[in-house]
């Protein structure tokens, strides 16, 4: 005997709940990472709290309500009803704005900066860790050499220069540069804009 084949119904497209009504079982706000979603003007008090705490927030503005004045780059609004894709796009943009402004090297040797990341080899990670300890400050060549090659190891004369050169290439896509401070050492710094890494002068030399 052959049983009839029953196909599941296609999933219904997700839509935001009508204004003024939260989704069934959902709290009064939802979040994507650190971004808070608030109803305006109903949740004006929560908005004041988020502003005071520096929490990124996206405001769902009532169809007939005047939008609030955004006080900083961590705030945005969209009028309801809104397409979920538009809401998520604005959340993602707020996440990028709220990302840490300083590079972070995690325990796995991955260097994070803003919304990008690059995996580093052990030697590269060790060098970045030393430069990060004095981020945007100069680290002397002798100090770098001593910390990269412990006592008893005698690197070649240009070993540090070669390692720095390779690391510069690895960091360029992140918008980071290792600058040469002539007569002193090296400095890890950021490029002035997202395209600057592609315009970096060969070797990233810097003089004052």
UniProtKB/TrEMBL annotation:
Residues 91-190 form the OmpR/PhoB-type domain. Keywords: DNA-binding. The keyword Phosphoprotein does not apply. Residues 91-190 bind DNA. It comes from the Bacteria. Residues 1-32 are annotated as: Disordered. One of its GO terms (biological process) is phosphorelay signal transduction system. This is Helix-turn-helix domain-containing protein.
